From TrEMBL:
Entries under PANTHER family matching the protein: FE(2+)-TRAFFICKING PROTEIN-RELATED (PTHR36965:SF1)
GO MF term list: iron ion binding
Organism taxonomic ancestry: Bacteria, Pseudomonadati, Pseudomonadota, Gammaproteobacteria, Vibrionales
Protein name, UniProt field: Probable Fe(2+)-trafficking protein
Gene Ontology BP, a term: cellular response to oxidative stress
Keyword Iron on entry: yes
């Protein structure tokens, strides 16, 4: 059963994630401040970014780039623009 948190991305109360999904201090910050709904939105953006930019998750620079985009999306309110993607 999930608890309710104030999600800083959605700017509203929402169900939390059931466990810390990302490692380290950033993971702790995400777990405490980001709802499952917002995380799901990030996951969709992340998949598009990985595909569009042809990121290799074994490459530390690519992981660092993705982590920066994740933080900007979840905490700074920056949307992820995918070149050539037109939402329906």
């Amino acid at each position: 059963m999930s608890k309710t948190i104030y999600c800083v991305h959605l700017k509203k109360e929402a169900p939390s994630m059931s466990f810390q999904i990302y490692p380290g201090e950033l993971g702790k910050k995400i777990y405490e401040n980001i709802s499952q709904e917002a995380w799901n939105k990030w996951q969709a953006k992340q998949t598009m970014l990985i595909n569009e930019k042809k990121l290799n998750m074994m490459d530390p620079e690519h992981r660092k780039f993705l982590e920066k985009k994740m933080s900007e999306f979840l905490f700074d309110g920056k949307d992820i623009i995918i070149d050539g993607y037109q939402p329906k």
